[in-house]
Amino acid sequence: MAKLIIRNENKKGIIPPEIYGHFSEHLGRCIYEGIYVRENSDIPNVNGMRTDVVEALKEIKIPVLRWPGGCFADEYHWMDGIGPRESRKKMINTHWGGVVEDNSFGTHEYFELCRQLGCKTYVNGNLGSGTVREMSEWIEYMTFKGVSPMAILRKQNGHEDPWVVDYFGVGNENWGCGGNMRPQHYADEYRRYQTYVRNYDGNKPITKICCGANVDDYHWTKEVLATCFDHTEEKFHGFMDGLSLHYYTLPETEDDWNYKGSATDFTEEVFYQTLKRGYYMEELINKHSEILDWYDPDKKIGLMVDEWGVWTDVEPGTNPGFLYQQNTMRDALVAGMNLNIFNKHTDRVKLACIAQMVNVLQSVLLTEGAKMIKTPTYHVFKMYRHHQGAALLDSELTGSGTVGTGKNELPKVFESVSEDSEGTITITLTNNSIESKETVDIGLTKDGGAYRVSEAVFISGAMNAHNTFEAPETVKEQEFKDYTAKPDGLSVNIPACAVVSIRLKK
Ligand code: AHR
Q1: Is 71 a pocket residue for ligand 1 (Cβ < 6 Å)?
Q2: What's 304's domain CATH number?
Q3: 3-class secondary-structure state, position 234
Q4: Tens of pLDDT along 362-390?
Q5: Cα Rg of the chain, angstroms
Q6: Domain residues for 79?
Q7: 306 close to ligand 1 (CB < 6 Angstrom)
Q8: pLDDT per residue as tens digits for the range 436-481
Q9: Is 173 a catalytic residue?
Q10: Is residue 373 part of a domain?
Q11: Is residue 31 part of a domain?
């Protein structure tokens, strides 16, 4: 039996809603088909955006959406995606399947999507193949209210008022697809490019995100921070608000570091291997944070995990460049575990974007023509949505033991706990075992006996259980009833291979 102590008198900071963020790239069927179907489509839409997709995303309270890439961002020239659609330039999407990109989804369409979703905006700029002027003019086009060439152009294209850019990425993966740069070189470029990411009108400042490391490239983190740090004045001059981190969970094997395997057909060994690789996120956050702490002890710079999720082989028969994969309970557990980890690192992790929102990698939604299904990962985001903007509570789980063997061994249960502004406590738990349930004895250090369960839901199933267009509800949220009250809290029995959310109210 495991024990979960919740020290509810000890609040550890607000969980930024943005760690429940999403990512949408011009890749495969994410933007086109998955989100944007154009106004004249038979698929119900508002200004070209699929109504089913927008409604489903609103239910999970999507807080922020990153766009247009990804690797695509450093090849994207924003001016090709404005003005009359029929005359927009066509280009080849060299990274993703070599297909023709007609630029019909551009800046105006992106902001329209975010308006419909009611979410914050995260635009990723092109440092790899774009000029400083191009980046600077994009900022001016999007955010300048007064009289200027770019503001006039925006108005001519039908948008009188400027938009709000909440986050701006100065390049993407510039150690790889974004220009194959060395860290010192990128950092010098970052210093230059970010200078022209102006805060027009003195309104809400744009949160500037510097390209951070790939996985465990701590050298990149150190060098970029050292180059951007002003050693004379011992500060960053406020020109870096966030440093990104990209980490994808690939099962990997000893003889094949790039092994991904099928999304739905895998062994128990590969199941635990995947979970263990997902758990690696904890170590990555700790180690990159240690370096950040040295330069930025006041934690002003957020660690932005703006690409994360499970990456498997594509579904058989689909375009390998489109990265379309199914999504099972295994993905749900990786999501539940990683979101619990992000919650617990609220002091440093300020944003995270699962890759990617629709039809690409670990998606929350899959579409096929007019049909749409919710994946197990979708249900995790729905169950965890109450953590957004709530205060993280000090919590500690002991005694659950481990699952998996040898190098694949990891804790059986992961948890995090928060309290919202109305005093409702949300506890989210994952049981990583395929075969055994786990009893968790939950105790609150303050007023434990006064709390009652106000809502309890869970998802569970075989390790490869997933939803299809024929059987869309194989994995779905169900009411969770297997708990009993006790003087200082409650005792819960979590089924094997499950993600649970329990809400407590006085
Ligand atoms: O999400 C798919 C790709 O993975 C992104 O374009 C890139 O940034 C990363 O390598």
Answers
A1: yes
A2: 3.20.20.80
A3: coil
A4: 999 999 999 999 999 999 999 999 999 99
A5: 23
A6: 15-254+300-390
A7: no
A8: 999 999 999 999 999 999 999 999 999 999 999 999 999 999 999 9
A9: yes
A10: yes
A11: yes
